Amino acid sequence: MSFREKLSWVSLGGITVAYGPYFFIVLVLQRTPTSLGVADAAGILTAVLVLTCLMTVATIIVAITNVRDAQAPSDERDVRIAGRAVAFAYPVLLAGVFAALATLFFGANQAVLINAVLAAVVLGELTRCLFEIVGYRTRG
After folding, report:
1. pLDDT for position 110
2. Tens of pLDDT, residues 33-77
3. Separation in Å, CA 78 to CA 11, 128, 132
4. Are 4 and 59 in contact (CB under 8 A)?
5. What is the pLDDT, as a whole number, of residue 40?
6. Contact 91, 42 (CB under 8 A)
7. What DSSP string runs through 83-139?
8. Main-chain dihedrals φ then ψ at residue 72, nearest 5 degrees
9. Residue 31 — pLDDT band, cuts 50, 70, 90?
10. Short-list 121, 113, 116, CA closest to 94
11. Torsions phi, psi of 120, nearest 5?
């Protein structure tokens, strides 16, 4: 498994671990506030900090275990796989943002809008990671 594929797996896992509990609380337990306050911002900030810490530690570990691959520049295959992944992820992100904005026409409050936009970004990143992994698994 290449260094960049490992980073895609790390990103996929990190995003899932960081934002999974947040969206579980918001969506499944239906604890969406009517307006954003300090406690609500703390939930989002916690997810961001968890993701940052996980990605930093995991990336360092992967880089230390694959020093030669980590120092190598991206080749044309890596660039092609990343480009395809972004090409698949961008429409997901765009559709998610438009869907989030559409919630305003149904009377959504600012908390719902913020969570919907955050969900769009997270889904876009998950899509990018998944398509990078698929790209590496299918030989680009």
Report:
1. 83
2. 666 777 778 888 999 999 999 999 999 999 999 888 888 888 899
3. 16, 13, 9
4. no
5. 74
6. no
7. HHHHHHHHHHHHHHHHHHHHGGGGT--HHHHHHHHHHHHHHHHHHHHHHHHHHHHTT
8. -75, 140
9. low
10. 121
11. -65, -45
